[in-house]
Amino acid sequence: MRPVRRLGAVLAGLALCAALSACGYGSQRVGSTVKVVPAGPALSTPEVRVGYFPNLTHATALVGVREGMIQKELGGTKLSTATFSAGPTAIEALSAGSVDLAWVGPSPAINGYTKLGGKGLRIVAGAASGGVKLVVDPKKIRTVADVKGKRIASPQLGNTQDVALLHWITTQGWQVDPMSGRGEVSVVRTDTKMTPNAYKSGSIDGAWVPEPTASMLVAQGARVLLEEAQLWPDRRFVTTHLIVSQRFLDKHPDVVEAVIRGAAAANAWINAKPEEARRSVNEALRELTGTALPAGIIEAAWPSLTFTDDPLAATLGTQAAHATEAGLLDHFVLRGIYDLGPLNRARTAAGRPPVDDAGLSTP
Question: What pTM value is reported for the model?
């Protein structure tokens, strides 16, 4: 099979297994953090369903839901939520109509857009940049050159961090089979929930992971060898953005714009009140997963994250090129993946400048 088809088949299988094991899309959630009830007249639909991850990189959604910013903008339209642990599962839920909008990473969005022939989803806003690190066992790895021959974890085959790790490996001149992960560096696909235990047991020598997993490993004695932000111009690259079903966008643009306004309000609050934001995010994580992060972990992880409405569109094209160079994709066409009209209307109304689509918006 061609690389793009093999990857698509693997990701589809992972998504299907996750959905079946959870007895339905999004049913991994433990609780809900929606605190604000609908008030006033409904918009063009009585309910909107949004999905996101219980991760620090999804703080825009965690805060926007828990603090009521999104529900406030929706008025009488009810906000319903689902949480996911993997991007492919969220894309499948969006495609199946189980959720209308979702916060996901760039690689699942690219794969979903390509798989659906450019007709199933659109990126409509940014959320987070940064927060991804290569952390290593300092007893085994002291320099970049020492990574050769070692076992480095990534969260999942073809996910955003997996692509970044594979690309970085190729820039070092090392050879790795992208599908199996075998080569001059062993890429070990490991669920981030299991990564700390894998590191503690010695089954991996390091990991290319998002926060808070990176800071969890540091707390176990690992050290940061590289922040992915160092590899990007201005240290900015898309980690999380907001996508919407094309069907839902066509039918309910007013609802999409309301969610975007609520997300923008959440980002503004996060940036203005970082200490309160950390507490809100941690309480949301406790409500959703049953466990809050230790204060030291969230405080160590937070500074590497930037929360922004700008989807940093130019970096998405670069990440797609990285997937091609790493051997996971043999072609991609991203023109039309963005529809930033609702976001830029909201920004204009708030007296803020529009964001750039890097030539990748709908014609």
Answer: 0.88
Spacing of C-alpha 21 from chain mean position:
22
Consecutive 10-residue runs of the chain (363 residues): their mean pLDDT?
44 37 38 75 97 95 98 97 89 95 94 87 98 97 98 92 95 95 97 95 97 96 97 95 97 98 97 97 95 95 96 94 82 90 94 95 76
For the domain covering 3-130+236-349, report its CATH number.
3.40.190.10
Q: Give residue 134's Cα distance to chain centre.
A: 17
Task: Give the separation between CA 83 and CA 103, rounded to whole angstroms.
Answer: 10
Classify 239 as helix, strand or coil: strand
Distances (CA, A) of 344 to 123, 338, 362: 13, 12, 14
Whole-number CA gyration radius for the chain: 19
164-192 in b/e form (b: 16+ CB < 10 A) is bbbbbbbeeeeebebbebebebbbbebeb
CATH of 132-234, one of 3.30.70.640, 3.40.190.10, 3.40.1390.10, 3.30.70.3270: 3.40.190.10
| Paired strand residues for 209 | 133
What DSSP designation does 361 have? Answer: B
